[in-house]
Write a structure and sequence with these properties.
It contains three helices and no strands. It has helices at about 15-40, 40-50, 60-75. The protein has one domain (about 15-75). It is mainly α and about 80 residues long.
Length: about 80
């Protein structure tokens, strides 16, 4: 018997969303390491967000859109 979750809802994890989350997490780790080494806050923050946000988004399309925006942000926004 599967364990009960809050609200009785067990989220379905699709393979495409899982692969995208792993891919974005790897890229986010790279952004984080670069931002930490270069003492640059924008890649550091984007790296953390790339690693964390897939846990809260279930839609594959939104995962790609948000991931692309976070990957482009350090190049478009300079602090």
């Amino acid at each position: 018997m599967p364990p009960a979750r809050a609200g009785g809802r067990i989220p379905h994890l699709r393979m495409d969303t899982l692969v995208a989350s792993i891919f974005l997490g790897i890229i986010g780790s790279g952004y984080f390491m670069y931002g930490k080494k270069a003492h640059s806050p924008m890649p550091l923050v984007c790296g953390v967000l790339l690693c964390v946000f897939p846990y809260f988004i279930e839609s594959f399309a939104w995962t790609l859109v948000i991931g692309a925006a976070l990957m482009a942000a350090p190049f478009a926004i300079t602090l």
